[in-house]
Amino acid sequence: MLSPVFSLSRRLLLALGLGLVVAGGLALAPAFSGQDRSDARAATGYASVTVDTAPLGASLYGPTGERLRAMMQAEMKRRFRITGDATQPRLVVRITEIVIPANFGLDNQSGGAALQTTDRMDGETLVVAPDGKVLQRFPVTVTAPSSTALGENGVEADFRRLGDLVRSFASWSARYAGSR
């Protein structure tokens, strides 16, 4: 039979251990919750945000380039505090490559051959001082499965896929440049 002192110290040790596990779990919960925490750091103020799609050249035909610029501009303004104060640094988003391959309809359920395709956007987010000097450079590459618009074709489906890339790019930019 165990003595009452040993039993009490074992219970105390077990209670302390359990308390540490619960406290550690609560502390780590936001990191593993799947929530986008980038907005918490978006309080960093910037004078303005500019989106540069010139590196894409002629690969953006029609209104796609302007629509990309507008989508990225709106998403970056949503994620960062834009002050208009010319004494603060500004953000420059430079998009260098976009790959949105044809969506051939992935159908792995039927056992048929499936072509795995991935959408991708490459670029960088720059923090630029009022005098034009680049203070920080954050390369960003984001990908998404092209099947996000499965069964849909046409320009609007491609813009929806592009919007997924834009939101992901802006989110990563906020993670990098949101806490300078």
UniProtKB/TrEMBL annotation:
Query: PROSITE patterns of this UniProt entry?
Result: TAT
Top-rank taxon, per record: Bacteria
| Organism per entry | Camelimonas lactis
Output this protein's name.
Answer: DUF3016 family protein
